[in-house]
Amino acid sequence: MVYILLGTGFEETEVVAPLDLLRRAGIETATVGVSGSTVYSSRNIGIVADMTLAEVDLTNLDMVVLPGGLGGVAAVRASEQAMQLLKFAWENGKYVAAICAGPSVLATLGITDGKQVTCYPGFEEKMGSATVRTDIPAIRDGMLITGASCGCAIPFGLELVKALRGEDAARQVAQEIVIR
């Protein structure tokens, strides 16, 4: 199961594009409201989450995804339960993924230390001891996957599919959506 964290103020495209691609690939994916079941994005679009943090089942966890959006990132940072979920996933060998401002939260937890990552340009100084490449849309370094920005949500989503189902599945999804 993939859990996508929705903190109030999240970036819409960084949630919906990866969610769509993961589900197209047949990967069970749920959105998780950090502070309740209806969560509002950075542009005040309400999304009804599939579940709340209290409903997350750690026994079937494959990946946790953290979208950006400054408000969403702040909401996740302020949630001890959300931070513990990210830490639990990492410490138990599960995929942890973040895009845009999201990787800075992972840096706070030490997850990005010594890893190759990308993030929103201007956030490089918030990435701890990671090697940062903002010229790449998405990077996978072991069990860590990072994306650069809202405009990179599709390559990021395809990287998530590739990690969980392989290159052929990611290529098939890319062909279905006619990405060029």
Key traits:
alpha/beta, 7-stranded mixed sheet, two-stranded antiparallel ribbon, 22% strand, globular
What does this structure look like?
This protein has 180 residues and is an alpha/beta fold. The protein is globular. It starts with a strand and ends with a helix. It has helices at residues 12-24, 70-78, 80-91, 103-108, 153-165, 167-176, and strands at residues 2-6, 29-33, 38-40, 46-48, 51-52, 63-66, 95-99, 116-117, 131-132, 138-141, 144-147. A hairpin with a 2-residue loop joins strand 10 (138-141) and strand 11. The mean pLDDT is 97. The longest helix has 13 residues, at 12-24. It has a seven-stranded mixed β-sheet, with helices on both faces. It has six helices and eleven strands.
